[in-house]
Specification:
Elements (H helix, E strand, L loop, with lengths): L10 H29 L3 H7 L3 H30 L5
Helix pairs in contact: 1-3
Length: 87
Amino acid sequence: MSSPDQQSMSAANALLLALGILLLLPGVCTVYYAAQVIAEGDFIRRASRDPYLEFVLYLWGICMVIALGGALLVWYAVRRGRAPPAV
């Protein structure tokens, strides 16, 4: 059994946590594909010759901002879940 000091997670916290984890996925994909592009070798030459790489870099930046929002949402949901109830 759980002790009386532990409180269960509310539905709002669970929803915030799930949404935050969902928003983390674009950042995970971005890191994965960026590592693949860099690992292929000679990134500088590719950057100067590939006309679409600039667009991809902007897209990766947008995805990382979305993932940052997801990380902050997860942090807020966890912190909110630990806060003592208001009296």
